[in-house]
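forwarding from the other thread:

> can someone predict this with flavin-adenine dinucleotide?

sure thing
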Amino acid sequence: MPSQPPATSVLVIGGGIAGLALSLSLSHHGIPSTVYEASPTPSTIGGAIHLPPSCLRALDHLGVLDRLRPRGAKIETMEIWSSPSRTRLGEFNFGKGTKTGGLRLRRREVHQTLLEAVREAGVQVQHGKKALEIAEVGEEMVVHFADGSEARGALVVGADGIHSTIRKGWVDPERRAEYTGVVGAYGYARIEPSRLHFCREGGGTAMNISRSGSLLTSFCSGDDKDEIYVAAVMGFPDIEKVSKEVNGWRVRGEDEEAVKREVDRRFGESRIETVREVVSRVEEWFLFPVFALGMEGTWWRGRAILVGDAAHAMPPQGQSVGICLDDVILLSRLLAKHSSSSASSSPSDSPSWTSADLSAAFSRYDTLRRPIVDKAHKKAIQQWENVKDISWLAFKFREWFVWLMLLTMGGMFDEGEGYDILKEEV
Ligand SMILES: Cc1cc2nc3c(=O)[nH]c(=O)nc-3n(C[C@H](O)[C@H](O)[C@H](O)COP(=O)(O)OP(=O)(O)OC[C@H]3O[C@@H](n4cnc5c(N)ncnc54)[C@H](O)[C@@H]3O)c2cc1C
């Protein structure tokens, strides 16, 4: 039976990337925390995510980059191909010329690496703890879990993802995630790298665009160069007909056949031979409905604050993990600065916070984070409008537009490259 954390500690609800990274970052500042995760075991679901250089800088700051790097494929460019005309329209720079480049790897690798680091730092991670309700009692927060237990702490951080219980139950009950009308289907396929149409040196990504969605094909593993991550994004207005499962699921039986047919209908007639081949070789398909959260509303209330997707989930655009990490690095710096024991001379003192301390820390957090997150959010929403089905003429226009955009913008992808959260004045 895990011991109860001291009431001065931080209760982190959700053991995804944001929650684990927060606990790790807090431990660097000597702030005790406990992570409560709903799933009974560490989750293995999730595709392969792309981490741009700014995100790798944050992981380096957290001390886990050297462990992660060998687990993924170094990615420096994303080529854009027109699937119907078999034309290479250009490429986005995904970190070419930077110290680290970018990295694509399975989400579970990031998760597992953070979990190891968190445990080594002595932080308790409790699985099978689904938070149901929270309340403020005097100078404490109390969280009630589905198994009948409760935890008390000085503050609560809701890192419980897009459908956050902490947001809906306490911080901002009005704000709900909405389905974007788009689903993603992903899986893995094996193919000899020299047969691919895009960059073949064991690294690289191609986005193959068509009139009815886009198909991402990418290297994703450090040591297995034959494994390609395949992800299709497609307009799909009526998600209720497919499933009510909001977090994504592995499709089986008849549903699996239906997904294969749908992906094949959209990409199986591609004029790029390897696109057709990779699609046909995916063994297991997973589906996820894409939701987004409006940016209006609050991120904190009393002694509770939201971070990561719980605060500002946006459709995937390759920068979200970096945004989550910047959130938690900044929040831990602010909690260290505004704790009552930060002025004390004894390093063994556990920090504590008055309501005024937390209000100062959270307000500053909001002021610094909101303009940056707002900008990324707007861009992500715009990008996802582009994956819905369009006419032949509109597609021709898009091909031309992509080519022009890459030519005029130089195609730099990593918005966060010039921004370093560690340089923010807290
Ligand atoms: C298909 C897809 C592809 C993506 N690709 C990229 C990419 O290439 N690059 C990138 O940077 N980002 C990408 N993202 C976004 C990125 O994965 C997320 O922004 C990030 O994982 C959010 O982390 P989080 O910890 O805030 O939330 P989550 O990962 O959702 O973690 C929340 C955790 O809280 C737990 N939880 C939920 N409710 C409770 C509760 N009541 N009590 C206790 N625990 C609870 C959940 O079980 C979960 O473990 C992608 C997202 C998706 C869906």
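The radius of gyration is 22 Å. thats all i got for now
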